[in-house]
Amino acid sequence: EHPRPRQECCVQVARYRAPPFPVDRGRYKPDKSDPRTPEYKKTLKFDRKMWGRQGEKSGFNAAICWPTEAELAEMLEEERDWQPSLAEMQSNIAARRAAEERERL
């Protein structure tokens, strides 16, 4: 017979946990004038993402995180095009119900 129960001697347990690899993420800022820098790193969207990740260490003004007047107007226009208002949706539902009622009679 085994000196220990069979379960304990056959189960492998990982005991070593490697420490995380040290990465300095607080100082990356792409050079926008360098032609080797990818185009997506030269955009305002990327700057906003860097501010979200790094905060004040990114070196950007926090005001870039909010949309400008033009961007806000464009977003509202797109929302009006794709999402009707509540009153429009209710009138569409009422018209559809009225049409179904007429078909039933």
Explain what the structure shows.
The protein has 105 residues and is mainly alpha-helical. 47% of the residues lie in helices and 0% in strands. It has helices spanning 6-10, 44-54, 69-82, 86-104. The protein is flat and about 80 Å long. 2% of the residues are buried.
Q: What is the percent of helical residues?
A: 40-55%
Which runs of at least 5 residues are low in confidence (pLDDT < 50)?
none
What string gives the helices and strands in order? HHHH
Structural class: mainly alpha
Beta-strand fraction estimate: under 5%
Query: What is the overall pLDDT average?
Result: 85
Structure annotation, total helices:
4
Sheet with the most strands, sense and barrel status: none
Distance between the termini: 86 Å
So what's the overall shape?
flat
The value of Rg in angstroms is 30 Å
Number of strands: 0
Write the layout of secondary structure elements.
Blueprint: H1 6-10, H2 44-54, H3 69-82, H4 86-104
Features:
mainly alpha, 105 residues, flat
Nutshell version of this structure?
By secondary structure, this protein is mostly helical.
